Amino acid sequence: MISTDIHLAAKFLKNEGVVGIPTETVYGLAANAFSENAIRKIFDIKKRPTTNPLILHIKNYEELLKVGTDIPEMAHRLAKAFWPGPLTLIVNKQKHISNLVTAHQNTVAVRVPNHPLTLELLNTIDFPLVAPSANPFTRISPTKALHVDDYFKTKIAMVLDGGSCSAGVESTIVGFNLNQPIVYRLGAISIEEIEKIAGKVTLLNAGKTKTTTPGMCKKHYAPSTKIILTSNILQELNHWKEKKIGLLLFQQTIPNVQLIHQKILSPEGDLKIATANLYNSLHELDTMNLDLIIAERFPDEGLGRTINDRLTRATKK
Ligand code: TXA
Ligand code: MG
User: Fold this and answer.
1) Does the 2-208 domain belong in CATH 3.90.870.10?
2) 107 lines ligand 1 (CB under 6 A)
């Protein structure tokens, strides 16, 4: 069921139900973070291994002090700069935060989402929400209420409809080594923006860490259709010319390919707009019964890095 009724959503959540919620990044699958019964439902519905920790969604910066401890000064600074917004901070957890949320780690991921309906919802209830992206494990994250409804139907109580997600890609996740920020997952805030506040940051290398982070899984964010990522679209088109092909392009269409099979992410070349359109365009191409999606590699700067990261993961089978 899709609805805009915040009070109904709050009622379901208070009764340990699972509700699809809008955020500025992607839709989340939300449950009461203080109820293990409710949290378990999320793992079941998403078919997500319980070794993958969840993000706590809190209503404001002050709540961070109630769920985290020994918070580095840099975390405060980043929170003040970007919250509410698409930045997730990894801090030491307080004892009362369930191991089911953190996958038995002593850290917890926390953010204040920047969406008016969800902020109002968080202000209506007296507990934080755990909310992974509202897609089955490894599938494309949803950026519209309809995507969530299509994925889960009656398995969830309702989807709170907050329109299309404005950022369109998951939050940037930042952890700390003492006071030094480490980017765990590229996301809706570019490295350059983080560095304006924090100075030089380190990027966590998937191969070098024990931390379980599905954002770091090789295969993730994948459509059902096979996808390849390239800097040379014409060469790939030539190579696969017998196939029914869809194109995911940055600015310009390619001649001699049916226009309905071409998705242009931003004709004006704006990386923010391209990011906002990325998952929706992948969802659309995925419904077209194509043999193959050929995606154009983005400039490796700003949000272009985030887009390349997601497209690279989507190519892994
Ligand atoms: O934009 C977002 O972050 C969306 C919306 C709904 O808020 N949520 C989202 O959640 O992307 P999810 O569960 O799909 O991704 C959460 C990521 C995972 O990669 C998880 O491993 C990581 O956060 N994570 C959570 N807790 C962690 C921790 N304590 N240490 C390291 N990584 C953690
Ligand atoms: Mg996810």
Assistant:
1) yes
2) yes
Residues forming beta bridges with residue 133, ordered by sequence position: 28
Best of 94, 111, 133 for a ligand 1 pocket test (most atoms within 8 Å of beta carbon) = 133
pTM for this prediction? 0.95
How much of the chain, in percent, has pLDDT values that exceed 70?
95
Q: pLDDT tens, 37-78?
A: 999 999 999 999 999 999 999 999 999 999 999 999 999 999
Query: Tokens 């290398």 appear where?
Result: 205
32 lines ligand 1 (CB under 6 A): no
Is the shortest distance between the CB of 90 and ligand 1 below 6 Å?
yes
Query: Residue 211 has which token pair?
Result: 């931390």
Nearest C-alpha neighbor of 279 from the set 221, 217, 227: 221
Question: What is the 3-state secondary structure of 51-78?
Answer: CCCCEEECCCHHHHHHHEECCCHHHHHH
Query: What is the per-residue pLDDT across 96-140, written as a single tens digit (0 to 9) for each?
Result: 999 999 999 999 999 999 999 999 999 999 999 999 999 999 899
Q: How much is the pLDDT for 207?
A: 46
What is the predicted pLDDT for the residue at 302?
98
Q: Which superfamily, per CATH, for 227-314?
A: Threonylcarbamoyl-AMP synthase, C-terminal domain (3.40.50.11030)
Ligand 1 centre distance from Cα of residue 314 (Å): 17
Ligand 1 in contact with 55 (CB < 6 A)? yes
Strands 107-111 and 55-57: parallel
Where do you find CATH 3.90.870.10 in the chain? 2-208
Question: Atom 21, ligand 1: which residue's CA is nearest?
Answer: 213
